[in-house]
Amino acid sequence: MKELIEAAKKMNTILRECEDGGDTFDETLNKITAVKVHGVTFPTLMLMEIIDEFAKGHADRQKVRFDIHSTDEAEMQKKYAEASAKWNDKLN
Q1: How far apart are CA 17 and CA 40, in angstroms?
Q2: Largest Cα–Cα distance of the chain, in whole Å?
Q3: Mean pLDDT over residues 9-27, rounded?
């Protein structure tokens, strides 16, 4: 089971690198095919499904990536005040 979790982490890393690098579907599929569990490669159809599912989240990942950098300073301070107050209330 541990090997399967490690494979999922590796696939996620590869998919993110391919997304950031602008790799084509074929390039991504070739790279993700290298991930094995107990020396066994995942079936190609399964890998294509994994890539397809990952691609569906592209817009959300881009939104989060750019929203982080466009956060207003006042909004950041407000969120800090709210979060720190909640945290401190629970711990003290």
Answers
A1: 23
A2: 54
A3: 93
**Structure token digits, residue 15:** 């998919």
What are the extents of the domains in the chain?
Answer: 2-91
Whole-angstrom distance, CA of residue 30 vs CA of residue 75: 43
In order of 26, 40, 58, 76, the CA distances from 46 in angstroms are: 14, 13, 19, 41
Q: Which two tokens stand for residue 67?
A: 């929203």
| Amino acid identity for residue 15 in this structure | L
More confident residue, 4 or 59: 4
Locate 23 and state its tokens. Answer: 């790799």
Please, which pLDDT band fits residue 81 given cuts at 50, 70 and 90? confident
pTM exceeding the 0.70 threshold for the entire prediction: no
Of the two residues 12 and 82, the one the predictor is more confident about is 12
Backbone phi and psi for residue 22, each to the nearest 5 degrees, phi listed first:
75, 30
Distances from the Cα of 62 to the Cα of 19, 20, 50, 59, 72, angstroms: 10, 10, 19, 5, 18
